[in-house]
Structure formats: structure tokens, C-alpha cells
Amino acid sequence: MALRGLLGTLAPAVIAGALVAVPQAAQASVGVGIQAGAVRLSGAAHPGQSVALPGVSVVNSGSHPESIRLSVRRISKGPGRPVPASWIQFGAPVVQLKPKHAVRVTLELVVPAGAKPGAYLSDIVAIASGQLSADGANLGAGAATLLEFRVAPDPAPGFWWSLFTQTLWALLIVILLAAVVFAVRRSGLRIRVEREAVSYGTADEYGGWHA
Fold first, then answer.
1. Which pTM value belongs to this model?
2. Which helix (H) or strand (E) holds 60?
């Protein structure tokens, strides 16, 4: 599996130190790998739509078990808006891996209804929790691969059909109610409710009652 170093977050001096110090660190090594192939959506996403992205493969290339955290950052240069981190849902944002073990993590793209159309570009970043200390420097490990997709300017397919069916049902209900009212009026049926007052009379001096 090809590895891409997270060079954008490490100073050149630290990188040079890592190349010398890590082999000297008493058989311990920290390493993270991620697939070289970019995560791309084959078609366009639509505002208000959730769509599954191709999964991303992550590997612990170090000598110790690792807790590896996944996130979205803009590292690569290129055209397109940065991908908001809240748009990407990881099946497991943190994975626990034994040495030399790999896992494939599922991704879901959640595009809000008010998303601006156009190209989007960022990176899927994997960072190891472990660090090595050498010559007074703390050395970590990370890797990244490209994430890119496009958002179409129109709503998701099926939106207008859903709106049409809802409107049609509402119209049919109104027509049905109107037909019932017309049928009742045409038949001449009348519903009449009468109330009749009941008089209890008054009592006489002998205890009787008279209406």
C-alpha cells in the first residue's frame, strides 16, 4: 500500500531529524499509511442529499498498536472550495490497529440544502496518537489522501417528483371533499337539530306538582 506523508504539518528540520532518529529509537517505530488513490465521487452530489463516498484504507505501519484518528483538512492545492468537516461522516473516526494491520473506513457525504454548487477539494487525514522522542524532539506520524467531489446547482433527483405527488394528493383530497358537499346539496338532505324545553312545574302547598 503506498503511503503519503503529511508533509504540510511538519517542518523540514523535524522531517530530517525523523529520518535519522527513528531507526535509533530502540526498535520502536510509529507509522501511519493511507491509500494513495484519491477519494472521488463519480457523479455530482446535490444540495440536501446524503451519498456514500468510496471508503478509505488506513494502515498501522509502525511496531506498536496505534489509535489512528481520521479528519478532513485542506492540505493539497488545487481549484475548488474547502470541504467543511461537518459534511464528511466517518464510519469510525478513530480506529485501533495492531502493527502492520489495515482497515477500510466507510465515508458518507452529507450536503446541506444551502450548499453552494461547484467543485470541492480537501484531504482525508490520518494521524497516529503515538509519538517517539529523539534528540529532544517529539516525532509523530500522519498521512493524507485527496478528497474531491462536485455539488450540482439543482436539488437531488426525485425532489420535484416528491413535491408533485404531495401536491397531487392534496388536490385529490380537496376534490373529494367538494364532491361530497355537492352530492349532499343535490340530494336535498337536511340535517335538523331541535331542542325542546322541559318544564318541571311548581309545587303546591300540599307537596304536589303542577305544570
1. 0.60
2. strand 50-60
CA distance 159 to 95: 36
**Contact (CB, 8 A) for 56 and 71:** no
Q: Tell me if 77 sits within 8 A of 8, measured CB to CB.
A: no
Beta-carbon contacts of 161 under 8 Å, excluding residues fewer than 6 positions away, are none
Record the cell numbers describing residue 128, joined without a space.
Answer: 497516529
Q: Quick one: residue 191, left, alpha or beta (phi over 0 = left, psi -120 to 50 = alpha)?
A: beta
Conformation bin of residue 181: beta by default, left when phi > 0, alpha when psi is -120 to 50: alpha
pLDDT tens digits for range 27-68: 668 889 999 999 999 999 999 999 999 999 999 998 889 999
- Per-residue model confidence as pLDDT tens digits over 23-36: 444 466 888 999 99
